[in-house]
Write a structure and sequence with these properties.
about 260 residues; alpha+beta; Jelly Rolls; four-stranded antiparallel beta sheet; binds 2-oxoglutaric acid; binds fe (ii) ion; iron; Gibberellin 2-beta-dioxygenase 8-like; IPNS-like_FE2OG_OXY; metal-binding; oxidoreductase
């Protein structure tokens, strides 16, 4: 996957940014940034799963990329679904046999292909302005595959902890929706990516998301959060980021 991803990102900028390639899903930096603190030194393809399987999707002539992406997406999707069900059943045994999370399928989940170019301006965290901005994921669960370079950090207690790359290991993050559904028992972990002065880094992330009209609800009542739909959540996050430069997330939905 890493080799295929490297080939994809080596395409000329015009090709990557063309509306046809991978459904026109190319982004660089932070399109929504309103201050330098929110800039990130990265480029990515934000690919809806349905696009990967669709015949209409243009892979820029990279035929092996299509097959590899399809295989990775399928495996990550299966893993995310299984883990989500196991985690849900641990809190609410009645979830067994139900489809959980409801409203998630290949039209709602997506794959993010990330590349972090070397960033000479920021050796060893000299200027934090170029990290992938600290955030929590707005989904149920994220399955992440990072390469050997490292740079991912997560908030543990009061400080950042580096997630060392282990060959063949995947990282699974609980997202905001699972935190809400679990009444805060599962925590959506804040994370960021440090830049590297000399080495480029690649990662692939699979986001388990429901449809926009799916109500999120809770494993049991009373819940600290009111019921909201995923669409409402996404809209609110986007509005907050645009208005204040920051994602507020779940606290907006406290009862
Ligand atoms: O590249 C990584 O390791 C993390 C990416 C990430 O956090 C994200 O895309 O939400
Ligand atoms: Fe993330």
């Amino acid at each position: 996957m890493r080799r295929e991803q490297a080939r994809l990102f080596r395409l000329p900028f015009e090709a990557k940014a063309s509306p046809g390639l991978l459904g026109g899903s190319y982004r660089w930096g932070t399109p929504t940034a309103t201050s330098p603190r929110q800039l990130s030194w990265s480029e990515a393809f934000h690919v809806p799963l349905a696009a990967v399987s669709g015949d209409a999707c243009d892979f820029g002539g990279l035929t092996t990329l299509r097959d590899v992406t399809w295989e990775v997406a399928g495996a990550m999707s299966k893993l995310a679904g299984t883990l989500a069900r196991v985690l849900a059943e641990a809190l609410r045994p009645a979830t067994a046999g139900e489809s959980f999370p409801e409203g998630c399928d290949e039209t709602t989940c997506f794959l993010l292909l990330n590349r972090y170019p070397p960033c000479p301006v920021s050796p060893d965290g000299g200027s934090a302005a170029f990290d992938l901005v600290p955030h929590t994921d707005s989904d149920f669960l994220t399955v992440l595959c990072q390469d050997h370079v490292g740079g991912l950090q997560l908030m543990k207690g009061a400080g950042w902890v580096a997630v060392k790359p282990i060959p063949g290991a995947l990282i699974v993050n609980v997202g905001d929706l699972f935190q809400a559904w679990s009444n805060n028992r599962y925590k959506s972990v804040e994370h960021k990516v440090m830049t590297n002065a000399t080495t480029e880094r690649y990662s692939v992330a699979y986001f388990l998301c429901p449809s926009y009209d799916s109500p999120i609800g809770a494993c049991e009542e009373p819940s600290p959060y009111r019921t909201f739909t995923f669409g409402e959540y996404r809209r609110r996050v986007q509005e907050d980021v645009k208005r204040t430069g920051k994602k507020i997330g779940l606290p907006n939905f406290l009862v």
